[in-house]
Amino acid sequence: MVIGILALQGGIEEHRAVLERLGCQVRLVRFPTDLEGLDGIVIPGGESTVMDKLARAFGLAEPLRDALKSGLPAFGTCAGLIYLAEVENPAPAQQTLAVLPVRVRRNAFGTQKDSFEQLIDGQPATFIRAPEVVAAGDAEVIARLADGRIVGVRHGRNVAYSFHPEENGRTDLHEQWLRNLRGEKHV
Ligand code: GLN
Protein backbone atom coordinates (compact mmCIF):
# COMPACT_ATOMS: atom_id res chain seq x y z
CA MET A 1 0.00 0.00 0.00
CA VAL A 2 1.12 3.54 -0.68
CA ILE A 3 0.70 5.64 2.44
CA GLY A 4 1.39 9.36 2.50
CA ILE A 5 2.66 11.35 5.45
CA LEU A 6 1.79 15.03 5.57
CA ALA A 7 5.38 16.24 5.62
CA LEU A 8 5.17 19.94 6.42
CA GLN A 9 6.23 19.81 10.06
CA GLY A 10 6.33 17.49 13.06
CA GLY A 11 7.01 13.81 13.70
CA ILE A 12 7.37 12.71 10.11
CA GLU A 13 10.32 10.32 10.45
CA GLU A 14 8.81 8.45 13.41
CA HIS A 15 5.71 7.61 11.37
CA ARG A 16 7.81 6.74 8.35
CA ALA A 17 9.77 4.22 10.42
CA VAL A 18 6.59 2.55 11.66
CA LEU A 19 4.97 2.41 8.22
CA GLU A 20 8.10 1.01 6.59
CA ARG A 21 8.35 -1.63 9.29
CA LEU A 22 4.80 -2.61 8.38
CA GLY A 23 5.76 -2.97 4.71
CA CYS A 24 4.14 0.19 3.31
CA GLN A 25 5.51 2.27 0.52
CA VAL A 26 5.76 5.74 2.08
CA ARG A 27 5.36 9.01 0.23
CA LEU A 28 6.04 12.36 1.89
CA VAL A 29 3.22 14.75 0.97
CA ARG A 30 4.09 18.41 0.43
CA PHE A 31 2.36 19.30 -2.81
CA PRO A 32 -1.14 18.60 -4.16
CA THR A 33 0.21 16.15 -6.76
CA ASP A 34 1.68 14.05 -3.92
CA LEU A 35 -1.90 13.12 -2.97
CA GLU A 36 -2.52 11.20 -6.18
CA GLY A 37 -3.01 7.46 -5.83
CA LEU A 38 -2.54 7.26 -2.06
CA ASP A 39 -4.25 4.48 -0.09
CA GLY A 40 -4.14 6.53 3.12
CA ILE A 41 -2.42 9.47 4.75
CA VAL A 42 -0.85 10.01 8.16
CA ILE A 43 -1.13 13.44 9.74
CA PRO A 44 1.66 13.56 12.33
CA GLY A 45 2.00 15.32 15.65
CA GLY A 46 3.81 18.63 15.86
CA GLU A 47 2.07 21.97 15.99
CA SER A 48 -1.33 22.26 14.34
CA THR A 49 -1.10 26.04 13.91
CA VAL A 50 2.16 25.70 11.95
CA MET A 51 0.80 22.80 9.92
CA ASP A 52 -2.22 24.90 9.03
CA LYS A 53 -0.12 27.89 7.97
CA LEU A 54 2.25 25.81 5.87
CA ALA A 55 -0.55 23.77 4.24
CA ARG A 56 -2.25 26.98 3.17
CA ALA A 57 1.03 28.55 2.02
CA PHE A 58 1.83 25.43 -0.07
CA GLY A 59 -1.68 25.39 -1.58
CA LEU A 60 -2.16 21.98 -0.02
CA ALA A 61 -4.95 22.62 2.48
CA GLU A 62 -7.85 22.64 0.01
CA PRO A 63 -6.70 19.66 -2.10
CA LEU A 64 -6.03 17.72 1.10
CA ARG A 65 -9.49 18.53 2.48
CA ASP A 66 -11.06 17.54 -0.85
CA ALA A 67 -9.14 14.25 -0.93
CA LEU A 68 -10.17 13.43 2.64
CA LYS A 69 -13.79 14.35 1.92
CA SER A 70 -13.70 12.08 -1.12
CA GLY A 71 -12.67 9.18 1.11
CA LEU A 72 -8.87 9.21 1.47
CA PRO A 73 -8.46 7.53 4.89
CA ALA A 74 -6.45 9.40 7.54
CA PHE A 75 -4.48 8.41 10.63
CA GLY A 76 -3.81 11.38 12.91
CA THR A 77 -1.75 11.77 16.07
CA CYS A 78 -1.91 14.76 18.43
CA ALA A 79 -1.60 17.88 16.23
CA GLY A 80 -2.80 15.57 13.43
CA LEU A 81 -6.00 14.89 15.36
CA ILE A 82 -6.44 18.63 15.90
CA TYR A 83 -5.89 19.39 12.23
CA LEU A 84 -8.50 16.81 11.21
CA ALA A 85 -11.09 17.96 13.76
CA GLU A 86 -12.90 21.10 14.88
CA VAL A 87 -11.14 23.08 17.59
CA GLU A 88 -12.89 24.55 20.61
CA ASN A 89 -10.01 26.94 21.41
CA PRO A 90 -8.19 27.73 18.15
CA ALA A 91 -5.20 30.05 18.09
CA PRO A 92 -5.95 33.39 16.38
CA ALA A 93 -6.72 32.74 12.69
CA GLN A 94 -6.13 29.00 13.07
CA GLN A 95 -8.03 26.85 10.58
CA THR A 96 -8.42 23.11 10.54
CA LEU A 97 -9.58 20.66 7.90
CA ALA A 98 -12.66 19.76 9.98
CA VAL A 99 -13.20 16.47 8.19
CA LEU A 100 -13.70 14.46 11.39
CA PRO A 101 -17.01 15.11 13.16
CA VAL A 102 -15.30 15.64 16.51
CA ARG A 103 -14.44 18.65 18.60
CA VAL A 104 -11.13 18.93 20.43
CA ARG A 105 -9.59 21.18 23.03
CA ARG A 106 -5.95 22.01 22.29
CA ASN A 107 -3.35 21.71 25.05
CA ALA A 108 -6.01 20.20 27.32
CA PHE A 109 -3.42 18.66 29.64
CA GLY A 110 -1.13 21.67 30.05
CA THR A 111 2.22 22.64 28.62
CA GLN A 112 5.26 20.67 27.46
CA LYS A 113 6.45 20.17 31.04
CA ASP A 114 3.11 18.57 31.92
CA SER A 115 3.80 15.80 29.37
CA PHE A 116 2.95 12.37 30.75
CA GLU A 117 2.71 8.73 29.86
CA GLN A 118 -0.18 6.46 30.74
CA LEU A 119 -0.98 2.89 29.83
CA ILE A 120 -3.98 2.63 27.55
CA ASP A 121 -5.21 -0.91 26.97
CA GLY A 122 -1.96 -2.05 28.57
CA GLN A 123 0.26 -0.12 26.13
CA PRO A 124 2.28 3.05 26.83
CA ALA A 125 0.82 6.26 25.44
CA THR A 126 2.77 9.53 25.49
CA PHE A 127 0.90 12.84 25.80
CA ILE A 128 2.78 16.02 24.80
CA ARG A 129 0.70 19.21 24.87
CA ALA A 130 -2.03 16.87 23.81
CA PRO A 131 -5.61 17.62 22.82
CA GLU A 132 -8.67 16.08 24.43
CA VAL A 133 -11.74 15.13 22.43
CA VAL A 134 -14.54 17.08 24.10
CA ALA A 135 -17.32 15.96 21.75
CA ALA A 136 -17.07 12.75 19.74
CA GLY A 137 -20.22 13.30 17.65
CA ASP A 138 -20.98 10.12 15.74
CA ALA A 139 -17.36 8.97 15.82
CA GLU A 140 -16.61 5.82 17.79
CA VAL A 141 -14.53 6.33 20.93
CA ILE A 142 -11.56 3.94 20.77
CA ALA A 143 -9.28 5.26 23.53
CA ARG A 144 -9.86 6.87 26.91
CA LEU A 145 -7.63 7.85 29.79
CA ALA A 146 -8.22 6.19 33.14
CA ASP A 147 -10.34 9.21 34.16
CA GLY A 148 -12.60 8.71 31.14
CA ARG A 149 -11.34 11.56 28.98
CA ILE A 150 -11.53 10.70 25.28
CA VAL A 151 -8.17 10.40 23.51
CA GLY A 152 -8.91 8.29 20.45
CA VAL A 153 -11.68 8.18 17.85
CA ARG A 154 -12.59 6.25 14.73
CA HIS A 155 -14.91 7.50 12.05
CA GLY A 156 -15.27 5.38 8.94
CA ARG A 157 -11.73 4.53 7.87
CA ASN A 158 -10.22 7.46 9.77
CA VAL A 159 -8.63 7.13 13.17
CA ALA A 160 -6.98 9.75 15.34
CA TYR A 161 -5.33 9.75 18.75
CA SER A 162 -4.29 12.49 21.19
CA PHE A 163 -1.07 10.64 21.98
CA HIS A 164 1.96 9.45 20.02
CA PRO A 165 2.08 5.68 19.36
CA GLU A 166 4.95 6.36 16.94
CA GLU A 167 7.11 7.66 19.83
CA ASN A 168 6.90 4.41 21.77
CA GLY A 169 8.02 2.00 19.09
CA ARG A 170 4.42 0.82 18.86
CA THR A 171 3.18 -0.43 15.54
CA ASP A 172 -0.14 -1.97 16.60
CA LEU A 173 -2.34 1.09 16.07
CA HIS A 174 -0.97 1.84 12.61
CA GLU A 175 -1.32 -1.86 11.86
CA GLN A 176 -5.00 -1.93 12.90
CA TRP A 177 -5.70 1.06 10.67
CA LEU A 178 -3.89 -0.52 7.70
CA ARG A 179 -5.79 -3.76 8.22
CA ASN A 180 -9.01 -1.82 8.18
CA LEU A 181 -7.96 -0.14 4.92
CA ARG A 182 -7.34 -3.54 3.38
CA GLY A 183 -10.86 -4.49 4.33
CA GLU A 184 -9.78 -6.91 7.02
CA LYS A 185 -11.67 -7.07 10.28
CA HIS A 186 -10.16 -4.91 12.98
CA VAL A 187 -8.92 -6.67 16.08
N1 GLN B 1 -0.40 21.39 21.14
C1 GLN B 1 -0.05 21.06 19.79
C2 GLN B 1 -1.01 21.71 18.82
O1 GLN B 1 -1.86 22.44 19.19
C3 GLN B 1 -0.02 19.56 19.55
C4 GLN B 1 1.16 18.93 20.25
C5 GLN B 1 1.63 17.64 19.65
O2 GLN B 1 1.35 17.31 18.50
N2 GLN B 1 2.45 16.94 20.40
O3 GLN B 1 -0.92 21.47 17.64
TrEMBL record:
Transferase as UniProt keyword: yes
InterPro entries: Class_I_gatase-like (IPR029062), PdxT/SNO (IPR002161), PdxT/SNO_CS (IPR021196)
GO biological process, one term: L-glutamine catabolic process
Record bears the keyword Hydrolase: yes
Matches recorded under PROSITE patterns: GATASE_TYPE_1, PDXT_SNO_1, PDXT_SNO_2
SUPFAM superfamilies: Class I glutamine amidotransferase-like
Catalytic activity, as annotated: aldehydo-D-ribose 5-phosphate + D-glyceraldehyde 3-phosphate + L-glutamine = pyridoxal 5'-phosphate + L-glutamate + phosphate + 3 H2O + H(+); L-glutamine + H2O = L-glutamate + NH4(+)
Domain of life from the UniProt record: Bacteria
GO molecular function per UniProt: glutaminase activity; pyridoxal 5'-phosphate synthase (glutamine hydrolysing) activity; transferase activity
Sites where the protein binds L-glutamine: 46-48, 106, 128-129
Catalytic machinery residues: 78 (nucleophile), 164 (charge relay system), 166 (charge relay system)
This enzyme's EC code(s): 4.3.3.6, 3.5.1.2
Gene Ontology CC annotation, any one: glutaminase complex
Metabolic or biological pathway, per its Swiss-Prot or TrEMBL entry: Cofactor biosynthesis; pyridoxal 5'-phosphate biosynthesis
Its biological purpose: Catalyzes the hydrolysis of glutamine to glutamate and ammonia as part of the biosynthesis of pyridoxal 5'-phosphate. The resulting ammonia molecule is channeled to the active site of PdxS.
Known partners and oligomeric status: In the presence of PdxS, forms a dodecamer of heterodimers. Only shows activity in the heterodimer.
NCBIfam families for the chain: PLP_synth_Pdx2 (TIGR03800)
Protein name: Pyridoxal 5'-phosphate synthase subunit PdxT
Organism: Corynebacterium gerontici
